[in-house]
């Protein structure tokens, strides 16, 4: 990798081999700053402490994580030390990296799978010794039984637990209005588990907010997320009236709902936070540092906010069917989809660095293992014969988290498109 950096460092991204994943540092930094600043501003407006937790699953790199937390982002108004991981490898890679720098930016790690099963607890126990605070999710009574059976983790601190709330995504978690949820809550605060378990808070993730069509839609999901975790907190008060809820963390977010913190009419949100909330609000999100077509289709962002793209090459073209062949097949772009048709939108290299809406002529219509086929929009007038064989194109991916997962490293470029760095993700398991 050092070899690659010495070969391409200081050169234009246009000279990079293809397919490559390119991150535009200025846009990445701006996305990180805007999110931290909107959390900070909401805290100022409401006069309430609001925490921030960054999910690092999109890029899985130490460098990207530090930026999400506000380190190395000069104009961000706050920093945080809390992250979510989707694999243990992310946590260990990141901690190794920050230890090699002698830093302790990351102090609080939450594993984002409900993981109260013994093999996962064994791994989490090892991780508990490396980080100040470790949080886990539970959403099943057996998870609590397993925690008791396992005993304290290696850190000798109690397992700090978020109860995972499902507020409509139907992936992980329980509906807070269900009997199952109440049973889990009762058990989590019972004497049966209190030797090893400490209830840290409630966690909701509105994954289904990706179907939003506007920031106003996403705002509605945000309110629902907050109401769902707050409902859970109210249940807790009923179950344990003597309990001090001032430290209870109510964690909500997904990239669309976190973007919706910026909605102009904040009165409903501020009212809930100031008058109704039982604990401390925490906002969590991940994809926002890169963005992609799935986020574009929510109506919450502009295409030029997307900070990462795939660089591909034109390998051939077919005049009769007016199509172009590229080296960006399913192994690169995957089969992720959104309301934006195709597997990716093509942007001319001279436009991709812009901070204004792009002009599209070609999109990736279909993919097979290594082949990507570009089609043009009806009436666009674009002809495959006008596209040079061997030329390069930038492609905005449908889902950055999954597409970036296909690459062993990312090239980082400055605002002029000059390669300045390479980041290595902690991929796979
Ligand atoms: C449990 C959990 N929390 C937070 C996030 C972050 O969501 P987003 O990438 O939409 O910000 C995810 C993403 O899948 C998740 O699974």
From TrEMBL:
The keyword Lyase applies. Pfam families: Ala_racemase_N, D-ser_dehydrat. It catalyses: D-serine = pyruvate + NH4(+). Its EC number is 4.3.1.18. One of its GO terms (molecular function) is D-serine ammonia-lyase activity. The keyword DNA-binding does not apply. It comes from the Eukaryota. SMART domains: D-ser_dehydrat. Residues 307-414 form the D-serine dehydratase-like domain. Keywords: Detoxification, Lyase, Metal-binding, Pyridoxal phosphate, Zinc. GO terms for biological process: D-serine catabolic process; response to toxic substance. Its cofactor is Zn(2+); pyridoxal 5'-phosphate. Catalyzes the conversion of D-serine to pyruvate and ammonia. May play a role in D-serine detoxification. Belongs to the DSD1 family. This is D-serine dehydratase. It comes from Zygosaccharomyces bailii (strain CLIB 213 / ATCC 58445 / CBS 680 / BCRC 21525 / NBRC 1098 / NCYC 1416 / NRRL Y-2227).
